[in-house]
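Hello K.,

You asked for the raw outputs rather than the summary table, so here they are, unedited. I folded two proteins back to back in the same session to keep the settings identical. This is the first:
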Amino acid sequence: MTSTTEPTEPLSVEQLSATTLLRFATAGSVDDGKSTLVGRLLHDSKSILTDQLEAVERVSAGRGQDTPDLALLTDGLRAEREQGITIDVAYRYFATARRRFILADTPGHVQYTRNMVTGASTADLAVVLVDARNGVIEQTRRHAAVAALLRVPHVVLAVNKMDLVGYEERVFAAIAEEFTAYASELGVPEITAIPISALAGDNVVEPSATMDWYGGPTVLEHLETVPVSHDLAHCHARLPVQYVIRPQTAEHPDYRGYAGQIAAGTFRVGDEVTVLPSGRTSKVAGIDLLGTPVDVAWTPQSVTLLLADDIDISRGDLLVPSKDAPPVTQDVEATVCHVADAPLTVGHRVLLKHGTRTVKAIVRDIPSRLTLDDLSLHPHPGRLVANDIGRVKIRTAEPLPLDAYADSRRTGAFILIDPADGTTLTAGMVGESFAAPQPVGEDADEDGWDF
C-alpha cells in the first residue's frame, strides 16, 4: 500500500520514539464538520493510504459526489455513513515528524454526548467545532462544559465553514469572543480560536489564502506545538492491584507479587508504601518489569511489586507511598455526567467502580444540576437524566482511597454501574468543579443500604 500523495520518507522507529504523544478529541454539534475536519487533517498530512482513499472515492461516487467525502475516513459504521452522522467514537492514530497523535472523533448529536465523555476523558486537548453560520449553540456549551469537567488542559475553538460566510473576520471574532467568555467562566485554562474551512482545507494543515486577516497557527501547527506539560511520572504514585501472583512452584516457592498498571507516579525499590484501604505498611523489596528485575518503574508501565512483609492484599487494593497517601472515605462528593437513558435518582442503588475496585453504593443526594445556558445551578433536582451534569453525594459500602480529580484524572475518576445488568450509568469526578456543591443531608436509608 502506498501514500495518497507524493512519496515521502517514512518516520523511523527512532524518530517516532523521540516525538511526544498528544491525545486529542474533536467535538461539536451535528453537521458542524468534525468528521470532514479529521478526514482533511489525515489527508493533507499524508496520513492515509491509497486503498483507503479509493474506498472513500467509490462510496462518494455512488452518492453522486464529484469529489471524495473525507468524512467517510472516520465515519466507519454503516449506520453512520447512511445517516451522514457520527455515532461511535472513532479513534485514529497518525504521526508527523514533530509529534505522534491519538485522535478521538466524538459524536455531535445530543443523544451521543455520553460518547464525548469517553473520548475526552484521557485527552490533552479538545477541538470544539462551531458552524460559522450558527455560532455558539447549546451543544457547543455542553461540549465546553464536558471539556472543563474532564479538566482537558487545552481547548481549540475551530470556527468551521468560513467559506459559507464569505470568510468574514467579524463573524469569526464574534463567535470567538462569545465562546472564550463562556469557556473561561467554566475554568478552561487555555483557549485557542482558529477560523477554518474543513471542506476547502483552509487553515487545517495549510494556511488559508483567503483569510489573510488571520495570523495565527493552522490546526495541525497548533497540535504539533501545544505544550504537553503534565507528566504523570511526577504525580502521586498509585498502583491499583489487578492480580496477586503466587506461583508456588519449586523454582518460586515463596514468590508473592502484586501486579497492575501504574496509574500515576514512580515506584522505587526501598520505597515505604501503604496498602489502602487497610492502611498496612511495608517496603518495596523488588520490582519485576516484563520478567526482569528493575530498581524503578513509572506510569504507565505494567509491573509486579514485591513487598518486604507478607501482607493480605487482593485485587482492588491500592498501593501508594506512605508519605503521600490519599484520604480513605465512604462519603464521595463528585461532579458527574449522566450517560444512561434511565435517570439517576436520589436513593439509587449502584455499584461504584474506582480503579480495580468495585463496591456497593447508594446515591444519598443530588445537590444540584448545571444549567448550561447561564451556568446557574438548579438546586436538588432529585434526578439526572441522560447528558445532565450535576453534583452528587454517594455513600459506599466499603471505604475507598480517592484522589481529587483535579489532582489525578486517573485515580480521581469513577463510574456508577447498574447492579442489575452492568450498564454504565454515570461518569464521576471526585471533588470540586465549576459547579459548587450544596449542603447534603444525612438521612438514613430504610432498605438495608444505610452504610
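The second followed immediately with the same parameters:
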Amino acid sequence: MAAQRIVIENCAIATVDAQDTEYASGHVVVADNVIESVGPGPAPAGPENVVRRIDGTGHLVTPGLVNTHHHFYQWLTRGLAQDCNLFNWLVTLYPVWARIDEPMVHAAAQGSLGMLARGGVTTAMDHHYVFPRGAGDLLGAEIRAAREMGVRFTAARGSMDRGESDGGLPPDFAVETTEAALIATEEAIDTHHDASFGSMLQIAVAPCSPFSVSTELMREAAVLARRRGVRLHTHGSETVEEEKFCHELFGMGPTDYFESTGWLGEDVWMAHCVHMNDSDIAAFGRTGTGVAHCPSSNARLGAGIARVPDMLDAGVPVGLGVDGTASNESGELHTELRNALLVSRLGPRREHALNARQALRLGTYGGAQVLGRAGEIGSLEAGKLADLVLWRLDGIGHSSIADPVAALVLGAAAPVALSLVGGRPVVEDGRLTTADEDAIARVAREQARRLARIAEVG
C-alpha cells in the first residue's frame, strides 16, 4: 500500500540536527509515520498520495519536545506546600500521596499528559514510585492514559523500600519490600516494554532516590535493568540536604554512592543533579550518564541552579523535565525552554551560559539522548519518526521577533498549530485531537477532591 503523505511548507524550520541546520523558509514531507524529506523552499513537486498540504507561513517547525522527568500523580496535589524545601515538601505531601488509587492516577495522568501534549511534547516520560497496598494497577493506569492521548511514552517503574520505620520519609504502607519491588518491575518489563523502532511504550527501572531506597534495591535494580536491556532512572544530587544524608548514611557523596551501586553509565539518567562538583560532572561525562534538568521545579523548591553549561562542556547528555506538577504547577515543558535559559544565566556564566538554540536542543535532541532514542526522535531528519511541532509565531506575542527560534524560546508560550506523533495529529489549533479536555479537567477535579477527603480522614 502506497505511503500517505503530509506536506508542510513555507515555514521556518529548526532541524536540531548535528549541524543545527535551519531554513528561513522550507518544507517537511511526512510519509506515514516517518520523515521523508526536509529542506529549503517548497516541497518537491509531485509526491504521491498527499492527504494533507499545510501552508506554514508565519510558523516554525521543530522536532517534538521530549520530557525526561515527571510524576503524573502529583497533578492532584498542585498548589500545596507552597513555601517548602524538598524534604519539608515531601514530609507534607507523602501522607496524601500514600492514599492514591488507580482511578486517581488515571485522571492525574490524563491531566499531566494533556498539558504536555498541548505544549508540544510528543514523547512523555513518567517516574511513578508510590504504590500503596491495595491501590490497583497504578502503572497500568498511566500507560492506558498515554495510549489514549496518543503520545510516545517511557514509563519508569519506580519503587521505594525505605519507609518511616527505616529512617525514610514515606509512610510504611506506601512502600514495598525489596523483593516485591524487583518482581513488579520485571513484570512491567515483561508486560509492556517494546524495544522496536517506533515503539510507543518503553519501560525503565527507577528506584526513587537514595533517601527512600535501600542500597540492596539500588544494586539489584541496576542488575535487573542490564539483564533485561532497559534504562535506569532515579533522582540525584537534588539538594544540599540529600548530599548531607548520603555522607551521613553511606560515608560518601551522591555520585560516589551511585558509582558504588552500579548507577553510572550510558544507560542511566538522573533527575535534577543540582549540587554537582567538578569531579561529579567529570564522572557523568566520562560514563555518559544523563541528566534530566528541571529548572522550574528546582526554583519552586529552592533547590538551586544546576550547572548545565558545565555539564554540556563535559559531554554529559542533558534533557529537560517538567517534574511533578506539585512542584511545577504549569506542567508544560515548552515553558522550560525559556526557564532553562533564564535560570542558567543567573549562574556564574551569566549571559554566556545558554543561548536559545542550546535550550531548544535540551528540549528535543537532548531529551532523546537521555531516553536512549536519539536514533529515532529529537531532530528533523529523513528516516526519523514523524514527531514534530508546528508553532504559530505570527500572532501578537511574537510579532516583532525576527528570529523564530528566539521567538519560541524567549517569547511568550507559542501556540501549537499542529503536533504530530508518528505522523498522527495529537494537537491542532491549540486543542487536543485525541481527548476531551473539558472531561479531563472535570474528572481531575473530582479525583483531587476525593483524594483530599480520603487523606483528611486517613
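Residues 437-457 form the longest helix (21 residues).

Happy to rerun anything if the numbers look odd on your end.

Regards,
P.
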